[in-house]
Design goal:
Elements (H helix, E strand, L loop, with lengths): L2 E6 L6 E6 L2 E7 H7 L9 H26 L4 H11 L3 E2 L5 E2 L4 H13 L5 H11 L8 H10 L4 H10 L4 H12 L6 H10 L4 H9 L3
Antiparallel strand pairs: 1-2, 2-3, 4-5
Helix pairs in contact: 2-3, 2-4, 3-4, 5-7, 6-7, 8-10, 9-10
């Protein structure tokens, strides 16, 4: 079987359509075409073409996963979940089920993202702690709970929380300033703040220091 054409896609110039024996077979990104050394006129066996199709699948998934990572920092657990969903069959507009990507391809994409530094739970946790509810206030206990839910290890969470300059004393004051007028008495406000994860002593001290 012979590659008969290699042409750029109209919708995406970075992807290249590859035809075999006059029929479209798969697409690759520009860098894959170069790395794999594909040229018109080259002969390939069916097993070799299947391997190239796996490379096509990898390139597509890596590009989508990279876009996902660049939207905002994500934990490794979040990216793993994103990739897992891509392994599940999906129903197309024609109503037919389309197979998902292979587990092997999903794991390979994850490894490449980690290798390139797009997944880093320490950097993700730093971003999360320093930007989460920055103007509204948030307790350390709440931050800890959120990071755990995103699959971050206790070791990294403890390290990041130890390094941050945010303190519950300052954070609870932010919330009191915004919420105090909504509560008829301090007891109800204290109960609300306790549910947010703040300690009683920090709540009491903050309330005593505000008008």
């Amino acid at each position: 079987m012979k590659i008969t054409s290699i042409t750029s896609q109209k919708r995406d110039n970075n992807r290249i359509n590859v035809s075999v024996d006059g029929k479209y077979r798969f697409s690759l990104d520009i860098f894959q075409v170069s790395d794999l050394g594909l040229k018109v006129g080259q002969d390939y066996s069916e097993p070799e073409l299947l391997k190239l199709e796996q490379e096509s699948q990898f390139g597509k998934l890596y590009g989508r996963a990279l876009d996902y990572c660049l939207m905002r920092p994500h934990s490794q657990f979040e990216v793993q979940n994103y990739l897992f969903k891509k392994t599940r069959p999906t129903r197309g507009k024609d109503g037919n089920l389309r197979p998902g990507v292979s587990d092997e391809t999903s794991k390979r994409v994850l490894s490449r993202l980690i290798e390139k530094g797009y997944i880093d739970d320490y950097k993700f946790s730093k971003f999360w702690v320093e930007n989460r509810s920055l103007g509204k206030g948030i307790s350390r206990r709440k931050l800890l709970s959120e990071l755990k839910s995103k699959g971050v290890s206790n070791t990294i969470i403890d390290q990041v929380l130890a390094e941050t300059e945010r303190s519950d004393e300052d954070e609870v004051k932010k919330i009191i300033k915004k919420k105090r007028r909504h509560y008829s008495d301090d007891k109800k406000l204290m109960e609300y703040l306790a549910r947010l994860g703040f300690r009683y002593d920090d709540i009491k001290q903050a309330l005593d220091g505000t008008d």
